[in-house]
Amino acid sequence: MYSLPNILTLARIGVVPFVVVLIFLDGDLWRWLALLIYAAACITDYFDGYLARTLNDQSDFGRLLDPIADKILVGACLLALTAVDAIADWTIIPALVILLREILVSGMREFLAEIRVGMPVSKLAKWKTTIQMLAIGFVIIGPSGPPPLPTVIIGEVGLWVAAGLTLITGYDYLQRGLSHATPEAEQARRKAQAQKRRNPATADPG
Question: Are 35 and 137 in contact (CB under 8 A)?
């Protein structure tokens, strides 16, 4: 549980309150501090998985906590940014789409976990996450960014792009999940379970 990858994941959750408080504080200094901590949290999202694979230290605890940490970080930032009007008007729509997709995927994963079916992350979903993280960073810094760089516009456009990818990947996950929720799929699982009870030797060891 207390391996380095898991510690990084826990740290990503631990910094969320600090980022939220800094977002609520007005001033360039606070925005830059919020961006710095947020960026560090996003970097841990890469390194915890990389270290887990490199050190051969993958665990069920890490697999459980990693997506939860991502959703807490993204959800908290989007809500805080909306509260201070950094995300406002029409830009609330992509933020809402992103949040609703996270709820959908969480529910789908819970259902599939109960029937012991994995739902691997697609490459498009990884691109969505990257664009989403970058967009939120630009929104956090907002008008405090370097003058030549239109950080506000970049952040808003990034949210719309991430929302578009969110709809695509969310639909893909929904299709995959629903394919295991049909009467035919349920009947096939029951037959497989009955077969295992009749032939224990064919069941998974352990």
Answer: yes
